[in-house]
Amino acid sequence: MKRRNFIKKATLSSLTVVIGSEIVFGNMLPKGYIPLAVQDPDPFKLFNKDAEMVVLNDRPWNMEAKAHLLNEKITSNKFMFIRNNGKIPENITIANWTITFDGESVKTPKTYTLQELKTKFEQHTYQLTLECGGNGRSEFDPPAKGNQWTIGAVSCARWTGVRLKDVLEDIGIKNDAVYIGYHAADTHLSGDPKKEPISRGVPMAKAFQEETLLAFKMNGKDIPLAHGYPLRLIAGGWPASASGKWINGISVRNKVHDGTKMTGTAYRVPCKPVAPGDKVKDEDMCIIESMPVKSLITYPKSGAMIDKKKKLLINGHAWAGELEVSKMEYSIDFGSSWQDCKLERPINRLAWQHFSAEISFSKKGYYEIWARATDAQGKSQSMILPGWNPKGYLNNACHRIAIKVI
Ligand SMILES: Nc1nc2c(c(=O)[nH]1)N[C@H]1C(S)=C(S)[C@@H](COP(=O)(O)O)O[C@H]1N2
Ligand SMILES: [Mo]
């Protein structure tokens, strides 16, 4: 039954249960009236998010961070973006949770309970960068449909789980395996139980990486519901759409997985560059794999006022998909000259790296601080939107903040 219908038909006693306290004057409630407390839920409370997070969509829930909210080295739940394609599963009982491995390339399908996964295989913890392929989409011109992410659809939390490769080795897969595809418990917005909101995956090489996890913990605790409780695939450094939440199945395929949002134009970019606004045929669109080099200045907040007598310490994070970031620079003169930042090594592969710099300003007035990362293959972020594409993916243009020196 739909929530709204339930509420309309609810009795006073069931409303009391939902609200969690006696409704004084409940006998005076007009017929069919929905008490405010059970009307549209407050997403900040519901998902335990910081009040400064920005809601982009409520059906399904999509929420992003602002740059200064991402200053922590390890992203906590409060500041982690939410990207949902369907409805979050309800009434999850962890004791009954199973995951089934099937597909053309498994010898025999096999099901594990969550408890079996936790006890049978060695557990590993990695800090892993997850960035939505559409992060930065709001800058596309002509615009691209979809959530208008600015810069905040990125996170780097610590994930604990078992290696997907250990489980795949336990099952035994055939030599013709090409791809894995996940299946999950979230439901399609249409309500059609036969439709999956999303079912993506990764090639075998990525599935077999040490850092690719079937995770059941985030930052040392059960994964929050919105982020995939109780079991999530984590494929760091790739578009976060490859990291299935609420997973209850993995198909090992003998071809590129063809689940929902793997085919057509979803999470794909033109195989060859196109002009802004060009139409691109489906067969000329290629699947996004490793994410491009990118960085964020997370301190200070854009718009900060700085005392001229003091030095300004800036810091932030940089990441480059499968690669390491090898250089981080900043400019205070609109990109005409660049200075090196201090750049830390990642805590493990596929984790973002922290940078900092101390800046002195010679004169009072308005400045912008621009930041630019370069990956281990020498590729740098561009200053303006790189490579327009029809669906608005992979905008890794430089981040900038405004500063007034007083
Ligand atoms: N089952 C399921 N997994 C999913 C999604 C989803 O809608 N359903 N969204 C994907 C997309 S597009 C992104 S960007 C990430 C977002 O992860 P987060 O909400 O934990 O930040 O989850 C991915 N995994
Ligand atoms: Mo995404």
Care to give the gist of this entry?
It is built from 6 helices and 24 strands. With 406 residues, it is mainly β. The mean pLDDT is 95.
Task: Please explain how this structure is put together.
By secondary structure, this protein is mainly beta. It has three domains: 2-77, no CATH class; 86-287, Oxidoreductase, molybdopterin-binding domain (Sulfite Oxidase, Chain A, domain 2, Alpha-Beta Complex), CATH 3.90.420; 294-405, Immunoglobulin-like. The chain is 9% helix and 31% strand. The chain contains six helices and 24 strands. The strands form six sheets. A five-stranded mixed beta sheet has the order 5-4-13-8-9. Strands 6, 7, 10, 11 and 12 form a five-stranded antiparallel beta sheet that branches. A hairpin with a 2-residue loop joins strand 10 (213-218) and strand 11. The longest helix is centred in the first third of the chain and has 8 residues, at 12-19. The N and C termini lie far apart (59 Å). The mean pLDDT is 95.
SS content category: mainly beta
Tell me the CATH architecture of the largest domain. Answer: Alpha-Beta Complex
What percentage of amino acids are in beta strands? 25-35%
Estimate nothing, just give the exact number of structural domains. 3
Q: Bound compounds, please? A: the ligand Nc1nc2c(c(=O)[nH]1)N[C@H]1C(S)=C(S)[C@@H](COP(=O)(O)O)O[C@H]1N2, molybdenum atom
CATH fold-level name of the largest domain: Sulfite Oxidase, Chain A, domain 2
Largest sheet: 5 strands, mixed
Across the major sheet, the strand order is 5-4-13-8-9
Radius of gyration: 23 Å
| Low-pLDDT residue spans | none
Q: State the CATH superfamily name of the largest domain.
A: Oxidoreductase, molybdopterin-binding domain
Termini separation: 59 Å
Q: Averaging pLDDT over every residue, what do you get?
A: 95
CATH class of the largest domain: Alpha Beta
Overall 3D shape: globular
Helix count, DSSP H or I runs of 4 or more residues? 6
